Protein: ABC transporter domain-containing protein
Amino acid sequence: MPKAETILSFERASFEYGHNKPILDEVNFSLRLGAKFALMGQNGAGKSTIFQLIIKKLAPESGKVNVGEGLSTALSRQVIARDELSLTVREFFERCFSEKVYNIDPRIDEVLEVVNLKGHLPAGKAGEKVHERIMKSFSGGQQARLLLASALIQNPDLLLLDEPTNNLDKAGIEHLTQFLTNYNKTVIVISHDANFLNAFTEGVLYLDLHTQKIEQYVGNYKDVVVEIAARIEKENKKNAQLAKEIQENKDKANFFAHKGGKMRNVAKKMRDKIEVMEENQVDVRKEDKTIRRFAIFHQPDLIGEVLHISAYTAMKNHKMVSLKADISMGKNRHLLLKGPNGIGKSTLLESIALGTAKGITIATGVRVGYYRQDFSTLNFDDTVYDSLMAVMEKQVEENLRSVGAGFLIPRMMKTRIGDLSEGQKGLVAFARLVLQKPGLLILDEPTNHINFRHIPVIAKALDAYQGAMILVSHVPEFVSQIRIDEILDLEK
Structure:
């Protein structure tokens, strides 16, 4: 098949969830075989919906979504579905195919090598093979690689990646970047990691939340930002010049209208000209909104030692071991927990939050705010309103709605948590922390799924937090913006 052939096209495709949530409005774009594009847009704009349309899980209300005849597609999702967490690795990969695949284990081994997991996934108890391990037994970073492998094992002509760097450590991101650079098929990637995208993409599909249109650009994301800024400046200048001319003509039209006689005809012609000029004014492209600056206030009655670590657990040589430490945390102390994927960071954070970690004690009465990377602390059946109200000590609706507005979620108050995008769930989780006012803040990969525009605002809030804080993050640029008082490296 010649490289110039179109592999994917949207022709005036429209889609909406009900009558109150339009996602796409007569969208047009096309991609050639072998192209590598980023799909970007604000949280909740509908990026994942576009992927669902491409793989035919959803159908457009009108228009067409065309994938080249005989070409295969595969999607690497953001998260493993809850009903898949109890599957074995083998069962998980078998679900990737519509027909039974015999002797699938060698194919699994091969694709685990591609995503840099071969040899890094220990067998389970009593010599249990990797293929027989349960999916939920793997760390968040390992699950991210398994999701990627589930798409690659299908060897698709069109590879769709939805936030593939979430939960990946530095080595994992570098390995994925190199793989995608060398990949000779078509790729579309949803990601909020600009540096990752700039390493291999050649264009951007930008889903505008305000117009529900796709804007197609050539160049990496940095090029697109410059191009959009230049376009907005040009549109503003054009509108300013037109506004000046419109006002001058209005003044003249009013002057001639008062003269009477033939001058009224002149005034009418000028008003017709004004109408044309007003129609020529362009709608300036709206930039994505950024969440408002916010503060997470600590528990007001916080006194003395909040947390003490005398021992902790980590994975060493495929075994969980206990290690000694002597870390005391009071108010205004920030601890960074480091280590590669699979060493046990999320497991340790969860045990601390639940109060079950051996060798780690939380002072009596300390309120714990826990941000989990999989959002499992949220009840997916709750509405956003109920979820926010549940963490408030004093349930004042005005405060709830004010905080919600700051996180761009006022229109979602009646929406089920389970119906939100992953990015929107992240914003709800942060809003809950603001309303909760914890004494101990535990954050597990808090930038996953979050629009990159929001990240500096979140970093400022965490930097200023004056309670005790434990942070896990594989994003150096984010961590560098936050004051860290102590580092616990599980690998060392």
Notes: The mean pLDDT is 88.
